[in-house]
C-alpha cells in the first residue's frame, strides 16, 4: 500500500514537471502555440481537458486566491473599458425592466455598471463566496437590489426556468469552466429569452479555450456581432486560417432569433 502511494506521488510529480516543461515550450514557440490552441479547441469541444490546462480551476476560483494573487476579488472591483465595450452593443435592445443574468459575477462590477444605468432586475451566480460577501460592502446598492447566488454556474443554471432572462452574459468566465460541463452552452441558450453576450479569451493557454461560437451555435443560437476587445489582440479565427498566433479576447453577441 505504502509502495503504491509513493509510486503514485512520484508519477504525479513527474507528470506535473512534464506539463510545466511542455507549457514553457508551447509558450515560447508561436507555431506550437497555434497548434496547441487548435488541439485545445478540438478537445474542449469534445468535453475533454486540454493537456496544459489545470484540472482544479474551479477549486482555485472557489478559494479566490491568497494574499497578492490576481484571483482575489480586489482584482475585479475596478470598472474598466471592457464594460463599456461589452454592453454598448446590447443596451439599445434592453429596457430598464429587462431581466439580466451574469455567470461568474465575482464582486459584481458588471452588475453594478448596469445597476448605475438603471437596471434593477439583476442576478449573478458566482462560485467564490468571498467575492459575493465583498459585494455587500463594495457595491451595497447593487447587492441590495440584486439576487446574488453563491454556487457553480453549470449546477445553478439548471435550477433556472426556461426563457427567464432577456440577457445572459459572462465576462472571462466560460474559459474557466471545465469542458465536462459543455452542457452549459445549451443551458445558457435555454434560460435566455433573447440574447447571450460573452467576452472570452479563446487563446487562453492554461484554462479551457474553446470555439465558443461553435458551441453556442450548436446550442441553437445565432451569432449577430463579434469584435475583438483587448488592445494588441489580433484575430485568430476559428477554424484557424492564418499561420500565426494571435490571442483572441472576443466580444460575441448571440441571439435566440432574428427579432432582437
Ligand atoms: C476572470 S474572473 C472574471 C470576474 C468577472 N466576470 C469580471 O469580469 O469582473 C472569473 C470569474 O468566474 C468565476 N467562476 C469561475 N468558475 C466558475 C463557476 N464554475 N461558476 C461560477 N463562477 C465561476 C470566478 O470565481 C471569477 O469570479
From TrEMBL:
Any one GO MF annotation of this record: S-adenosylmethionine-dependent methyltransferase activity
Species assigned in the record: candidate division WOR-1 bacterium RIFOXYC12_FULL_54_18
Signal sequence range: none
Stated name of the protein: Methyltransferase type 11 domain-containing protein
InterPro entries membership: Methyltransf_11, SAM-dependent_MTases_sf
Pfam families named in the record: Methyltransf_11
Organism classification: Bacteria, Bacillati, Saganbacteria
Stored CDD domains: AdoMet_MTases
Domain Methyltransferase type: 101-194
